[in-house]
Specification:
The chain has 204 residues and is α+β, with helices and mostly antiparallel strands. The chain has four helices and twelve strands; from the N terminus they run βββαββαααβββββββ.
């Protein structure tokens, strides 16, 4: 691990589309609070590179998360370490594309006022090599680890969901220097082969 950087394994299998990558801009999500400057998103896609079938209806109304290719896809530990936080039980809400996504974006400020829990949804934080790795938006009822538990790279921790601040099922990953996202600073991350750019489809 380079100074100020944590090297992670991809915490999934299959095909995942890279979005909001710090390889393209920092802060990657356009904001710095909660240690998000170097966060990255991965959206599961099918063999055609789509997260869900395209339909006219999706342009006008929300869709059930079960319609999406990656909903429930396994998520694994990207680093060996100790689980420091694990939250489950938050709802997987509807997914938003087209016009519904515009209306959903207008509610961002409300979720931000809820703090980390409102943004991350169901999540796991693993401490590895003195860095805290958060994996967010997990499916309700899927989190299978608990605080204090030792995990190794590739161990199951949950499943891809649509909880928290999420427009469609995807996995948000970030590294921090504290277990408390409200007080943490971001830590740079990298994956095998480097940091993928937006629009890249990672096959792991």
């Amino acid at each position: 691990m380079e100074a100020g950087q944590v090297d992670l394994e991809y915490p999934f299998a299959g095909r995942w589309l890279v979005q909001n990558s710090p390889a393209d801009r920092v802060p990657s999500h356009g904001t710095e609070p909660f240690g998000t400057s170097w966060a990255i998103d991965f959206t599961p896609v099918d063999g055609s590179g789509r997260s869900a079938p395209i339909s006219l209806a999706a342009f006008f109304r929300p869709e059930p998360p079960e319609r999406f290719a990656g909903f429930g896809r396994p998520v694994t530990a990207p680093v060996s370490g100790v689980v420091r936080a694990a939250r489950d039980g938050g709802p997987d809400h509807a997914a938003f594309r087209g016009l519904p996504s515009v209306r959903y974006a207008a509610t961002q400020a409300w979720r931000a006022r809820e703090g980390w829990m409102g943004l991350a949804g169901n999540h796991v934080i693993i401490e590895g090599e003195g860095v805290f790795i958060a994996l967010c938006h997990l499916k309700r009822g899927s989190v299978c680890v608990r605080p204090g538990q030792l995990v190794g790279v590739g161990d199951a921790i949950g499943a891809c969901g649509n909880s928290g601040n999420s427009t469609e099922p995807h996995l948000h990953i970030q590294a921090m220097d504290s277990v408390d996202p409200g007080r943490a600073s971001a830590v740079r991350i990298s994956f095998p082969g480097g940091l993928p750019r937006n629009g890249t489809i990672v096959s792991a």
